[in-house]
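Chain A, query sequence.
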Amino acid sequence: MKRIFPLLACLLPLASYAVEAESRENVCLCADSEALRKAADKYLNCINQISQGIDFSQTEIAEIVSSDCKKVLNGQLFTRSRETFLMDLRSVYENQGSWEVYPEDIIVAPAANTVVLRLFIEMEKLDTHTAIVILRFDSDCLITEINEVLNQVKGFYDFKDNK
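Chain A, predicted structure.
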């Protein structure tokens, strides 16, 4: 018994670490820079299609956004599901016209399963805006949260030629 106790004392921390590592792995299965970048590109493609009036089906959005995805806009909960998110984007197009999105920065953070976008948005009826968008992903690389801060650009800034 005296020999087993020191062995167990040494193995217990290793077992605990292995269990913690396994649970971390399950939480961040998508924590791969390339997979997150592709998922963010799918999101941008979705936004660009809808912004031009091209319909985006429930099936297509289900490949990008989780069913209970929430969108927070300028600090306020805006939508609570993928369906309301899609309806909101369609409503913006119907009421405000088309828009064009110009990604300026795309920052992938695999450890947090997050992608941060800095975008310029030219809107048909609402001038130019800048947005910081934080996309949080689940282990299947589906967006679970969209947190966006949107501000109108005052004055002139030629973001197209600034590349």
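The beta strands are 65-73, 76-79, 99-109, 114-123, 127-137, 143-152. The chain has one domain: 25-152.
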